[in-house]
């Protein structure tokens, strides 16, 4: 059980201190994972909204290192599993073995080992796991609880960090729409573009040992137990104007009906492109993300630039397209989002 006395209290008058801690975490992670400032900012925003994140990208670009660095920054127990085709949901809940006395024994698996204090649950290569595992994860992400041994287990702090590499599509299981929708952000990670960062990654041995690299981050800089309350306070603290609300509604309308919004993409039949996914939940997540972005920028009001900064990572993974466009889905949806941002006039 968590010691209630140890849970940090988050008061409105201390919000500036929490912002300093959040920015310090961002700086420290940025020293360890170089050339990925954009992705680090998204992970920070997701944590401050107490949301789950899926990273996608090339192999060996630092996704795992980044997630481990962030997990260390929030402190608390974490668990990590590798997605494999033979992983079953029960493997995450318990392990069965035979004890020295010859009797069967059950031990808690990765999800239950730390009780309700589990802070971060990493799911490496999530697309290698079967749909049954995705289903368990879906409930965990939506409700932060699971049922096992005829009991409800609550994991009130847990944040899911998942990654999948974008290269291998064979022998993998695409995440179902509902599970994808529960990720607050889906963020693409690519190679750093800065030549200096590239040089350092290859020649500086500091970047070759992930364990010592991650240990450079101050543990628990942004206490994981404060995140649910902090996320609520940030949402309450930052406001939106009627003009901003109209802007978000127009973006939503354009996502649902790009033709009516006058959006055209080369070689795409716009009238059949979008089949669903631009849901109220998705748009609510977008607004939550924009609140956090504004707060990190030191503002109490959401500006159009906040919405624009988080638009693609908040909504693109929720959009479902006609099957004829499935193979090129990622690129088309990204182009659609970019075209919408260009077309819809900001206040
Ligand atoms: N931007 C970066 N900053 C710091 N270290 C990096 C960066 N990119 C790669 N590395 C280093 O490269 C190695 C591989 O990184 P990591 O395992 O995090 O990649 P990955 O994207 O998770 O790969 P995979 O998809 O194969 O799991 C690690 O030693 C890591 O420290």
From TrEMBL:
Domain AAA+ ATPase: 49-193
Pfam family name, one: AAA_lid_2
InterPro entries, alphabetized: AAA+_ATPase, ATPase_AAA-3, CbbQ/NirQ/NorQ/GpvN, ChlI/MoxR_AAA_lid, ClpA/B, P-loop_NTPase
GO molecular function list: ATP binding; ATP hydrolysis activity
Signal peptide location: none
Protein name (record): Transcriptional regulator methanol dehydrogenase MoxR
Source organism of this protein record: Acidomonas methanolica NBRC 104435
